[in-house]
Amino acid sequence: MSGTRVRVAALADLHCTKTSQGVFQPLFAQIAAAADLLLIAGDLTDYGLPEEARVLARELSSVRVPVCAVLGNHDVESGNAAEVSALLSEAGVTLLDGDACELKGVGIAGVKGFGGGFGQRALAPWGEPIIKQFVREAVDEALKLEAALARLRTGPRVALLHYAPVAGTVDGEPLEIYPFLGSSRLEEPIGRYPVSLVLHGHAHRGQPQAATKNGVPVYNVSMQLLKRTTSDGRPFRVFELEVEDRAAVQPRRRATDAVAS
Ligand SMILES: [Fe+2]
Ligand SMILES: [Fe+2]
Q1: 12: CA distance to ligand 2 center in Å?
Q2: What is the overall mean pLDDT for the chain?
Q3: What is the DSSP letter of 154?
């Protein structure tokens, strides 16, 4: 039984500013030619300003493929996340926040995520109320991811995050900021569902690829990282996912999908 291969482009950390008019259109045209679907793993804007979202919405008007995204920490900086989300949704972007969607037969579960650190050194809910509140936020985001994954029934499943679920794709960042770049709590639900791949951004100086403890591939698709590590400097990646009815599907890397050397 053969299926259809869907090309999924991914990137993160656009950090669109009020003066970014024209900056992203050539990139989006390149992506639209190379892929059937575009996933954006947060930090779409620089300060989470509606003016920035309006600029990005105009830039995205040239994209002729479905676009799905999660917000990043920069997108909530100014307290206007609802308006930023509304502007991008009006521009046709499917924004996920603890929700799931299916585009071109690919299931996508999306959540921003949060920090707290990794493994045995992860922050625990102990001591001051503010520490407990910090951990609670990470737990809540993990629960949202779990609920989103549970809604996907068939086809390849992609977990779309902003924060990293594993330390492997954060390596290269200063050790002091690891706890602010992701949380192992996000890895837990990924291990409970048949996830084909995990995409995130946020760690601009991390590593392009790692895996969860269960072997699910995790890709850091931060533009800043990909510009430095792909052989051609292309700031996005393209994955091919085979879409077929009720079949287990594995991601396949394109020949043109550059890997860090
Ligand atoms: Fe960023
Ligand atoms: Fe970020």
Answers
A1: 9
A2: 93
A3: S
Ligand sitting nearest the alpha carbon of 163? 2
| C-alpha 215 to ligand 2 mean position (Å) | 25
Closest ligand (CA of 74): 2
Q: Which ligand is nearest to the CA of 71?
A: 2
Question: How does pLDDT run across 144-182, given as a tens digit for each residue?
Answer: 999 999 999 888 999 999 999 999 999 999 999 999 999
Q: How far is the CA of 117 from the centre of ligand 2 (A)?
A: 15
At residue 256, does pLDDT exceed 50? no
Instruction: Find out whether 55 and 25 touch, Cβ atoms under 8 Å.
Output: no
Residue 257 pLDDT class (50, 70, 90 cuts): very low
* The predicted structure's pLDDT at residue 62: 80
The string of pLDDT tens digits covering residues 129-150 is 999 999 999 999 999 999 999 9
pTM of the model as a whole: 0.93
- The DSSP code sequence of 48-107 is --HHHHHHHHHHHTT--S-EEEE--GGGGTTS-HHHHHHHHHHTTEEE-SSEEEEETTEE
Ligand 2 centre to CA of 119 (Å) is 21
Residue 246 C-alpha to ligand 2 middle, in angstroms? 35
Burial class (CB in 10 A: 0-12, 13-18, 19+), 64: exposed
CA separation for the pair 99, 51 (Å, rounded): 26
